[in-house]
Amino acid sequence: DALEYLEKLQIEIERTSQKIEIETVQPQSSQGRNYKINYNLIIPKSWESVISQVNGNIDAAGCEENVVIAAVNGNISLDDIKAGAAVSLINGNIAADAAIPEDGICSMEAVNGSILLQIPKETNAEFSAETTNGVVSCAGVTMTNLTSSNKKITGTMGTGSGTIDLVLVNGNIS
User: Fold this and answer.
1) Residues 90, 9: Cα–Cα separation, whole Å
2) N or C end of the chain: smaller count of CB under 10 Å?
3) How far is residue 154's CA from residue 12's CA, in Å, rounded to a whole number?
4) Which pLDDT band holds residue 1 (cuts at 50, 70, 90)?
5) How far apart are the C-alpha atoms of 147 and 135, rounded to whole Å?
């Protein structure tokens, strides 16, 4: 019986010269079953990554081109990113270890969860982090033009040539 339903799962792959799109199509009727699909994709570091999904965790590592992620439910982990990043999440936690390029942009926003960003001390960026219901904390970096409260921190890191913008509704930013 379970094998019959497993055969109803479809994986659709669309390839063009510009992208690879993978979509899981689940059966209309699951008879109370829950499906869990895990994808492990290895792509060249030099490719820009655009990832979107509804439920599940996303882990990206070693990217050297921009990373764009849009998700509804799940945790997002970015490790050893040497590029710009744009992350949008409704429910879950964002944890990132990133080196933003000189004129790069790092934008992370979430509704419910937390944002943890680790960046090198020598990062050059205009920095802004704000939460509506939670606390913003920042340690280990030096900023000029610093404005700080429990809910919001803004300032300039180094030359300020890049941009770091962190926005959260419910949760803490560090």
Assistant:
1) 26
2) N
3) 44
4) low
5) 14
Total residues belonging to the chain: 174
Q: Tell me if residue 2 falls in helix, strand or coil.
A: helix
Rounded-to-integer distance, Cα 86 and Cα 63, Å: 13
What local confidence, expressed as pLDDT, does residue 111 receive? 98
The answer to whether the beta carbons of residues 124 and 160 sit under 8 Å apart is: yes
Distance CA(160)–CA(20), nearest Å, equals 35
Number of H helices, E strands in the chain: 1, 12
Q: Which residue has the higher pLDDT, 116 or 21?
A: 116
- Whole-number pLDDT of residue 133: 97
Q: Could you tell me if 79 and 97 are in contact, meaning their C-beta atoms sit under 8 angstroms apart?
A: yes
pLDDT > 80? residue 2 = no
DSSP labels, 3-64 = HHHHTT-EEEEEE-SS-EEEEEE--S--TT------------TTS-EEEEEEES-EEEES--
